[in-house]
Amino acid sequence: MSLDVGSVAPDFTLKSQHGEDVSLSSFRGTNVLLVFIPFAFSGICSDELAALRDDADTFEAAQTQILVVSCDHFFSNRAFADQQGHPFPVLSDFWPHGEVSRAYGIFNDEVGVPNRGTYVIDREGVLRWMVQMGIGDQRDLADYRAAVAELS
């Protein structure tokens, strides 16, 4: 599936690291920064999410909810989020395996995990910005800030 900026972001419901159901549509009225990561506990993923954690106030001030998605089981995501001190939901796209990652066009069939994808979704659920990168490519936090700033 191909997503286009300006289209409605695909809705989903996934388990958070606490085993709670979280739906994208429940954040209508709030901007969302949706971040797909390949592997909990990996170096690049840990670095990227630490940068988001350390800059969470910027996104909160912009009324933007950070949601992270991996194909790891929610128990693994819990250990990862607890160890790293992530204040945002880390959602599990474990089963059906990669279903949401596929809906966003970011699932890597060869490896069985999402590539790195980031999506800025506005208060009405419309995709306003996105970047898709390979597993080994690190994203730039400044790009997220700029994209979110455009929504204000």
Describe this structure in words.
By secondary structure, the chain is α/β, with parallel strands linked by helices. It has one domain (13-149): 3-Layer(aba) Sandwich (Glutaredoxin). The chain contains 5 helices and 9 strands; from the N terminus they run βββααβαβαββββα. It has helices spanning 43-54, 56-61, 74-84, 99-103, 141-149, and strands at residues 13-15, 21-23, 31-36, 64-70, 90-92, 107-108, 113-114, 116-121, 127-133. The chain has a 5-stranded mixed sheet. A two-stranded antiparallel sheet has the order 1-2. Strands 6-7 form a two-stranded antiparallel ribbon. The longest helix is centred in the first third of the chain and has 12 residues, at 43-54. The chain is globular.
Q: Provide a count of the helices.
A: 5
- End-to-end Cα distance, whole Å, is 29 Å
Rg estimate, integer Å: 14 Å
Residue-averaged pLDDT, rounded?
Answer: 95
Summary keywords:
single chain, two-stranded antiparallel ribbon, alpha/beta, 152 residues, 5 helices, Glutaredoxin
Would you kindly provide a brief summary of this structure?
With 152 residues, the chain is α/β, with parallel strands linked by helices. Helix content is 28%, strand content 26%.
Please give the structural blueprint.
Blueprint: E1 13-15, E2 21-23, E3 31-36, H1 43-54, H2 56-61, E4 64-70, H3 74-84, E5 90-92, H4 99-103, E6 107-108, E7 113-114, E8 116-121, E9 127-133, H5 141-149
Parallel strand pairs: 3-4, 4-5
Antiparallel strand pairs: 1-2, 3-8, 6-7, 8-9
